[in-house]
Design brief:
With 129 residues, the chain is of the alpha+beta class. It contains four helices and nine strands; from the N terminus they run H-E-E-E-E-H-E-E-H-E-E-E-H.
Length: 129
């Protein structure tokens, strides 16, 4: 977990916590923001390892809760990256059925990198924009 996220979580109480099937928390709602933990190794190969995904059902629940901002705290070995996007952008994002579950694709090239070392593809994409 990135130290800035760790400090934030110490000072702020989430309004909702989401758990995976093993009982481990993977996402937290804070007012209008959703913080989700990811690992670089779990990026989607069908998107050239430059995307993550969120279950469509979870996304719809977040919208109903008033979430507008999605923050991904992504671990890459001992390094971290913090990505930011909005639910508004994700409403138009591609959808795929992965492992039998309909998911919304979070393309990292369309996210804002808030912290961490940018990868070469990300720098090239930003330079071209």
């Amino acid at each position: 977990m990135h130290s800035a996220i760790q400090n934030f979580q110490k000072e702020t109480t989430p309004t909702r916590i989401f758990y995976n099937d093993k009982g481990t928390p993977y996402g937290f709602v804070y007012d209008d923001s959703f913080l989700k933990f990811e690992q670089k190794k779990d990026r989607l190969g069908i998107f050239n390892y430059r995307a993550h995904a969120v279950d469509e059902e979870l996304f719809e629940e977040l919208i109903r809760m008033g979430v507008r901002i999605i923050i991904l705290d992504e671990r890459d070995g001992k390094a971290f990256r913090i990505w930011k996007t909005s639910t508004q952008k994700l409403e138009a994002a591609p959808r795929r059925r992965l492992a039998g579950v309909k998911r919304i694709i979070i393309e990292l090239s369309k996210c804002e990198l808030l912290s961490g070392d940018p990868e070469p593809w990300y720098l090239a994409r930003k330079a071209a924009a």
